[in-house]
Amino acid sequence: MASMVIWLMAIVLEVVPLVRAAEAKFTKHYKLFYSYLAFILLRDLWLLVVYFRWPKFYTYAYWSSEPIGVLVGCGLVWEVYKIALARFPGAARMARNVLAFLFILASTRIFVKAWNRPTWIPGRTGYEIERDLRIVQVALLAGLVVLFACYAIPLGRNLKGIIYGYSLFLVTSVVNLTLRYDLGDSFQRSWEHTQPFCYLFVLLVWCVTLWSYAPIPEPTTEPRLEANYESLVAATKRKLHSARSYVLKAMRP
After folding, report:
1. Distance CA 64, CA 148 (A)
2. Tens digit of pLDDT for each residue in 123-164?
3. What whole-number distance in Å separates Cα of residue 91 and Cα of residue 133?
4. 212: which DSSP letter?
5. What pTM value is reported for the model?
6. Which among 64, 62, 96, 91 has a CA at the least distance from the CA of 77?
7. Whole-angstrom Cα distance, residue 183 to residue 145?
């Protein structure tokens, strides 16, 4: 009964920021975030129907939809980087390349591990796959927070809420998935109430920080992020040119 109440409360809290953003007409500023939230809401409603109408298929319905949620979450992380680095085109270009590289690396690792398994176990294998992708997302968001903290670049109330709320969700998910994978169902019984409460807190953070649109404020001093990026690119080009010259000299008879 307690789990059902928490589930219904989560659905209500998912509706609130979506309705508020639609009424205030600022969904266009965070399209992928609200797409992610809308997907989670529709998924919860669908799972609720499955739970009552076809309880035997609930596990399969959950794990078949979970990978889609993880991929949509990756899009959310990409949007956070895009918005946060909008004033720094060079750094944004490098960030996009890093995002693509890490996503391909994680996907390749997951594919290889799945290929080497003799059987596909929906629950246990799903824990491991989701955990690996969540860890990549945590690392990317943590890197963004550290980057902006080092250069004293303001994020704004909306973006902070999205980052901190989603980061909390990711961290608790990684802990949950790791321990469920290692300890099995015995851990799940002790965690089944803790994680939903954490998720409710995440939704409350989003409801508060995204109640109205707050654009990213201009920094009081000009950050040196773009200048440092240009210096890094120039230094890399010089080293590559020197290495190319050295190789050409070594190849000459």
Report:
1. 36
2. 445 566 777 778 878 887 887 777 777 766 778 899 999 999
3. 23
4. S
5. 0.78
6. 96
7. 32
